[in-house]
Amino acid sequence: MGRKCLALLVMLLWFWGLPLEAWGEAPAVAQTIPDTLEGQVEAKAAVVIDGETGRVLFAKNANQRLPMASTTKIMTALLTLEQPNLEEYFVVDSQAIRVEGSSMGLKEGDQASLKALAYGMLLASGNDGANAAAVQISGSIAGFVERMNQRAQEMGLEDTHFVTPSGLGDPEHYSSAYDMALLAKEALKNPLFAEICGQKKGVVSYGNPPYNRWLTNHNRLLSDYPGTIGVKTGFTKEAGRCLVSCAQRDGIRLIVVTLGCPDDWTVHRTLYDRYFARLSLREVPETQVSVPVTGGSVPKVAGVYDPIPPVALAEGERLQVKVLAQPFVYAPVEQGQALGELRVYCDGQLLARRTLTAADYISAKERKGLFQKLLGSG
Fold this sequence. Notes:
The protein is α+β, with helices and mostly antiparallel strands. It is about 25% helix and about 30% strand. It has helices spanning about 75-80, 115-120, 125-140, 140-155, 175-185, 190-195, 220-225, 265-280, 370-375, and strands at about 5-15, 45-50, 55-60, 90, 110, 200-205, 210-215, 230-235, 240-250, 250-260, 280, 290-295, 300-305, 310-315, 320-325, 330, 340-345, 350-360. The longest helix is centred in the middle third of the chain and has 15 residues, at about 140-155. The chain is globular. The two termini are about 40 Å apart. The model is unreliable at about 1-30 (pLDDT under 50).
């Protein structure tokens, strides 16, 4: 076995005195809290995930590929807000803004900034804003769509394919409830995205010349459900009502997605009530890890890792820790040297992973020469 080879070190820990059970790598989607609610959720597809860890709490057809309408603009707005010079004005492309459906009211000759267009996408769900941003960033809608699909691939969205920046219907434009939840989780890491999508109303300046105007967010949950912080609505005749939302309570953040759901507002409130009531934050106990040192001044080195924040668990759920580390390391060992990885699971789903590093410097054991050995034996 080579020095670089990673192998299982000897650790399978169950916390709080719970019994040992079989376990393995996390599945892409699983319903980990048994629930009879699935039949009551009248949506083509739905999912609830922990907004911090990504753990799936509820799933109905969560990997089914479906049209997702204007929730597409989560990706478009995220890519827009990652650009430089967000507040720099430019003249919007006259062809790009000639698009059907919802609009932020752009006209030929209007000046706008990328930040203003992101507001227009996330609040007014402007198809014109999505197209205008796409052309400004990539030179063409097709070029921007290529960027969208590349980013989706980087995020691991396996059931997503974009054809338009706006979400207007196309047979090859689709996603899944699970992928949209992962996309929202990633997008909310962008502070400006999170700020914009959480606003009930916003003042934005654009026009010829630019002037201030109010845009209203289509997401009714921002007013109707306490703790809601986003994210995006969507509707087309083909897709039906689509909604990606996020709410937080008592330190727990949940993301709910429904695709093709006639009564999405009610369904989202029901799912939030159900899972906020079941979950509470639990500390992840510290795990002691050490790795043997071959030829070292001491026989082993302690492994350390960055703290893991509390995780949301339901009553009776158990945490599981798996340590993957080198079977041994050769001296000298540098402080901070990578030793392996620690992973925390719940019911087979990965909640956290941390790199294990050496806590201290371990020098090599001093070796005696032949003359010293002979003197020692005399």
